[in-house]
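Repro case for the chain-ordering regression, as requested:
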Amino acid sequence: MPTQIVRTTPIEGQKPGTSGLRKQTAVFRRPHFLENYVQAIFDGIGGIEGKTLIVGGDGRFYNDQAIQIILRMAAANGATKCIVGQGGILSTPAASHLIRLRKADGGLILSASHNPGGPDADFGLKYNGRNGGPASERITDEIFQRTATLDFFKIAACDDIDLTEIGIQSVESMEVEIVDPVADYATLMRSIVNFDKIHNLFANGFTMCFDAMHAVTGPYAHAILEDMLGAAKGTVINGIPSEDFGKGHPDPNPIWAKQLMDKMYGTDAPDFGAASDGDGDRNMIVGRGAYITPSDSLALLTAKAHLAPAYRGGLAGVARSMPTSRAVDRVADSLGIACYETPTGWKFFGNLLDAGKVTLCGEESAGTGSDHVREKDGLWAVLLWLNILAETKMSVTDLMNDLWATHGRCYYSRLDYEAVESDKATQMINGLQAKLGDLVGQKIGTLDIETADEFSYLDPVDGSTSANQGLRISFVGGARVVFRLSGTGTQGATIRIYLEQLEINPNRLQQDVMSVLQPVRDAALILSDLVAITGRTAPDVIT
Ligand code: G16
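-- result from build under test --
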């Protein structure tokens, strides 16, 4: 079976964002688009001759066809071996774990995460390195540079590989091993949380609903929650991955996980609710009638992680992305451990985890994780919550009330303005950026500005700097607003505005979130002039 060297031309606009490259599926299916990007990855990481790669994805439309192309290209580029999830399925955290477990050189993960899937929706591909985490900025830049100069790609001319049978096959001289996507991940989870305790919890009548959102965590959740931990059959809903996620939006937030929210806020709600996203790295936690913000979830997990076997000895430190609320900072402070503030995107946690500086980390966008892999991990967060619920015998609501009574409550919300014309979004951010220096001391609405700056991150491990990571403005009294442009949207620009207000008065911990945040929201709109510049009078999504 000969290798073909196919002449091609560079494709514009392939700058990978915080999580690889995401585009409309139709773009990925254009002639040579995927091939060019895959070749750019292979070249950008210094070639793959003699290397072993993990390959798998979230099962969305085009997953299997793309895997066939990747395998043929890996063979033609001289890889020794590819390890592929059966049926082309691997959740992002399971892929991260496999890279580490099998000491692979890296992995290609096919997913557009929480973006919808299907021929008219989105597709994505990212490269994770040897530590199991998203490629560093240096590597993504190398890949990007390569996309601009590429004039050929290599591909083996051969039949499709059978992805359905576990076992070993070959493509030219490259070995392809098809593995069970769940087994190794389940073993890892068993080594972190107390399966016996959680099993007892369910055996004693504890009820739960896990919404897999027709996405990749279905098989993982069925196997771990129902088969191993004894949760009742039917605990997992929407548990069969489908190419278009049941025509849904596999983003675990109160808007898109409506079926779960209705259950949790209805009569006879289960004790505990959770959801995960397209590729299984995000999570949403809900108690009976109580949605928990991801920022609060990170704070709670930090406060109680020692109840799980893997964290019994305490945490080395924690990290949160800059726009994530400062709730976890307060818990870390009380534990006497460091709390790092990083730019948005999981790749910035990698160095801290590798250096042993942090054990847990998280983002406001429903990502929580620990040093067990180098990705955020939706099901892991759910299992750690279950371990804490089993050990404390408290309800989700009581746990949160207890946390707020001890550390104060960070009321929090994010406003997303989607598919804004890019030049208008840039104009808004640039306008605000230009006046940052003059803002300190000004009164905006009812709030007094205390600090205003553009976030720049100095990595404490490798000394690299990441500039332009969002505009942040703090007000006297514990309020804060952050502005940034999304790096993961596929159409126009997405403006994100993050609102936060700290409350430490024990009598004011149970207020309506949006009422508490209204003064910060008003100030954000005045400061940014968003309505006049973009013409948008309301956000598309509020979480
Ligand atoms: C969004 C979130 C980030 C997250 C990123 C990737 O980025 O705001 O916190 O790291 O998605 O997440 P995932 O891999 O689950 O898609 P952005 O740039 O759109 O704000």
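Ordering looks correct now. The chain has three domains: 3-181, 185-407, 409-542.
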